[in-house]
């Protein structure tokens, strides 16, 4: 990093003096000198600017650098922290920062800088796009997010100066996005402080009441904590362990979350205090655990070994809950100094300790893998809100640890299914999975995984993602890949339908589709806002353009078309896929008189001619098409029927048997009892009207069936 042309007249604030004094404890003298030059430059750039609180703006960059200094980060990161707002709030450009302080610092500042003033439809769109860009920059250099988190932490510390509604909005965003990111990167202290500050502004009354209750209880419990600490230290010393033991009070948000999740009052939350034991090495951790278990009885099911199976963010410790004196539960964490360092600084520990330590390497490999998965999800998501939806699930804590058949451990979010596991192993396995085995037993793909499960995925080369998977997968990677596949499939099917519709419209104008030149197609695509002929055909299939209008424009390119002409009768084969939809209001089947409606972004929707849902809009739009069923349709269609039956023993079994004998399958059944009679609503799989009539004749033969009808509308 180099600096030249720096202002020399600026006075150094006392806060800056404290910062540089702190940095001198671990940085070289020349690095501290360079950072002082950066500070003077930033102070000059922000001269005359003030924060909402009334203090000079330079206080904010100094505070951000101080937060990162406590993590003992490198000189480039601290320089970028001091400069992180100059590009947004002053006349300083990225090129000037690069010229003065070097390209790496300029890239970090650029990554952290907020969005330019872009017009978005909603605030949610703006924030989602901001978050998307932030993660993209973070994937290139994780220090970007470290600066951003420190920036958010200081903003949260000074949030009081904002309007109440803005405080709540910023606090909610911090709780939902920034705190989980800090947790995912292992920044334990920042994570808990962000949570507590968010809690304070989201629920100010609850925060105040809980804070007062904790203060009142603190005096009563101090003596008990001292007794426990002394007992632990003596027992560990007697076991020959050199251990550092400390007690800590849980954060208010942790207490509040426990009260909400377990429906407890404050007086029922007994384990407000946790205890931490730090010993020299891993074997000593397990010796300390056994020693403390002999002092206080462990509570069954309350032990977790994060040393053998670390969390996804690299966190390692032994956790155990013990019955302390007077029946008070105690939470104990046992770890080594190296584990403690990673628990406090997470991924940031990399810049302090240039070590070949295997745990640190593993932590950064895991972080890089997570960042790469972000980039993959980013490329699969078509918009920022969708990306944000995908990634939120992966950020929230609560993981399950499962094994591959080879014994490799995978960490997945809580409530993950076998499909989530398949996509976590590899995208191709997820796309082609057809079945799963958990602990050697065949299970449905929607089965929720539990920690310790061994999962094996069965694949087939012809298999494809199922839209129904979106109802139960939870990981962002699985959701984004399934949606990408479905969008590609819908695009291809819509393009094929659009070509059919357009060819029929051209034929009705007595034009051979083969005679339309490539130049005509290119010109029409540009005028219609499509990138290519294929895109234009897909837009026709999705209802964004009427085929008759496009056909007339191809026939007379220079003519402005205001009306439409008929496109002939469209043949419905039932194999068009997502481009043709069968309306759920009337559920048409082959043999029903039908009409087609081109609905924007949904394609061609087929209704029965007498569907009650369309009676009001018939004749009010040019989007109606004449459609007819094709021959030899083999697929099954959903039909809803209602039966009123006498309420007698075994009647459901007889009805189900009659449906099966007629070659139909039951998708769903809902029954409503009403004294002597029961109403049964069935969703059946039917080939055509003839098949439906056959099913209904079989049902009428059952003596208990009083009334039967097909449901529409």
Would you kindly provide a written description of the structure presented here, covering whatever features stand out?
The structure is a single chain. The chain has 713 residues and is an alpha+beta fold. The protein has five domains: 188 residues, Hypothetical protein af1432; 144 residues, Beta Polymerase, domain 2 (2-Layer Sandwich); 116 residues, Beta-grasp domain (Ubiquitin-like (UB roll)), CATH 3.10.20.30; 147 residues, no CATH class; 74 residues, ACT domain (Alpha-Beta Plaits). It has a five-stranded mixed beta sheet. A five-stranded mixed beta sheet has the order 11-15-13-14-12, covered by helices on one side. Helix 1 packs parallel to helix 3, helix 11 packs antiparallel against helix 12 and helix 25 packs antiparallel against helix 26. It starts with 13 loop residues before the first helix and ends with a strand. This is GTP pyrophosphokinase. It holds the Pfam family RelA_SpoT. In eubacteria ppGpp (guanosine 3'-diphosphate 5'-diphosphate) is a mediator of the stringent response that coordinates a variety of cellular activities in response to changes in nutritional abundance. One of its GO terms (molecular function) is GTP diphosphokinase activity.
């Amino acid at each position: 990093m180099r600096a030249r042309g720096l202002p020399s007249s600026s006075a150094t604030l006392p806060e800056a003096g404290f910062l540089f004094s702190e940095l001198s404890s671990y940085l070289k003298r020349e690095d501290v000198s360079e950072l002082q030059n950066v500070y003077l430059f930033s102070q000059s750039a922000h001269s005359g600017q003030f924060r909402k609180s009334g203090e000079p703006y330079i206080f904010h960059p100094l505070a951000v650098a101080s937060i990162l200094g406590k993590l003992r980060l490198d000189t480039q990161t601290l320089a970028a922290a001091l400069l992180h707002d100059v590009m947004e709030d002053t006349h300083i450009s990225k090129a000037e920062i690069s010229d003065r302080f070097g390209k790496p610092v300029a890239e970090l500042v650029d990554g952290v800088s907020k969005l330019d003033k872009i017009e978005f439809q909603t605030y949610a769109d703006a924030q989602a796009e901001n978050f998307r860009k932030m993660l993209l920059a973070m994937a290139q250099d994780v220090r970007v997010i470290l600066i951003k988190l420190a920036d958010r932490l200081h903003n949260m510390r000074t949030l009081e100066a904002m309007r109440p509604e803005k405080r709540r909005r910023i606090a909610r965003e911090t709780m939902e996005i920034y705190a989980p990111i800090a947790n995912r990167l292992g920044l334990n202290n920042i994570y808990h402080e962000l949570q507590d500050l968010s809690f304070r502004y989201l629920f100010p009354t609850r925060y105040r009441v809980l804070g007062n209750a904790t203060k009142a209880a603190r005096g009563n419990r101090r003596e008990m904590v001292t007794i426990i600490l002394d007992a632990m230290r003596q027992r560990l010393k007697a076991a020959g362990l050199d251990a550092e033991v400390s007690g800590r009070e849980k954060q208010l948000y942790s207490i509040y979350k426990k009260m909400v999740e377990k429906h407890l009052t404050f007086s029922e939350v007994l384990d407000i205090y946790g205890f931490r034991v730090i010993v020299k090495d891993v074997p000593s951790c397990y010796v300390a655990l056994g020693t403390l278990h002999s002092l206080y009885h462990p509570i069954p099911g309350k032990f977790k070994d994060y040393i053998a199976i670390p969390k996804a963010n690299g966190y390692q410790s032994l956790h155990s809950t013990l019955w302390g004196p007077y029946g008070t539960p105690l939470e104990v964490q046992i770890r080594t100094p190296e584990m403690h360092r990673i628990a406090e600084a997470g991924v940031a520990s990399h810049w302090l300790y240039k070590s070949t330590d295997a745990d640190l390497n593993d932590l950064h490999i895991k972080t890089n893998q997570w960042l790469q998965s972000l980039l993959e999800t980013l490329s699969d998501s078509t918009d920022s809100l969708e990306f944000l939806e995908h990634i939120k699930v992966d950020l929230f804590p609560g993981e399950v640890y499962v094994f591959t058949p080879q014994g490799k451990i995978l960490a997945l979010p809580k409530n993950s299914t076998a499909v989530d596991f398949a996509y976590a192993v590899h995208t191709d396995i997820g796309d082609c999975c057809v079945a799963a085995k958990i602990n050697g037993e065949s299970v449905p793909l929607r089965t929720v995984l539990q920690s310790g499960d061994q999962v094996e995925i069965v694949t087939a080369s012809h298999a494809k993602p199922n839209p129904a998977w979106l109802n139960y997968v939870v990981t962002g990677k699985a959701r984004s890949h399934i949606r990408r596949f479905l969008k590609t499939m819908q695009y291809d099917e819509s393009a094929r339908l659009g070509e059919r519709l357009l060819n029929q419209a051209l034929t009705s104008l007595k034009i051979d589709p083969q005679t339309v030149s490539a130049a005509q197609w290119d010109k029409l695509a540009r005028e219609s806002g499509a990138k290519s002929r294929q895109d234009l055909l897909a837009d026709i299939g999705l209802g964004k353009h009427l085929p008759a209008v496009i056909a007339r424009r191809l026939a007379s390119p220079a003519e402005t078309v205001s009306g439409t002409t008929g496109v002939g009768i469209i043949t419905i084969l039932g194999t068009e896929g997502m481009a043709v939809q069968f309306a759920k209001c009337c559920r048409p089947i082959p043999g029903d008189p039908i009409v087609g409606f081109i609905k924007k972004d949904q394609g061609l929707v087929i209704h029965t001619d007498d569907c009650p849902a369309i009676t009001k809009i018939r004749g009010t739009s040019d989007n109606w098409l004449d459609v007819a069923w094709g021959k030899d349709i083999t697929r099954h269609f959903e039909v809803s029927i209602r039966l009123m039956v006498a309420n007698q023993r075994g009647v459901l079994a007889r009805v189900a048997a009659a449906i099966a004998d007629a070659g139909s399958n039951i998708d769903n059944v809902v029954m409503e009892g009403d004294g002597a009679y029961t109403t049964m609503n069935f969703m059946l799989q039917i080939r055509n009207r003839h098949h439906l009539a056959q099913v209904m004749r079989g049902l009428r033969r059952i003596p208990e069936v009083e009334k039967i009808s097909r449901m529409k509308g």
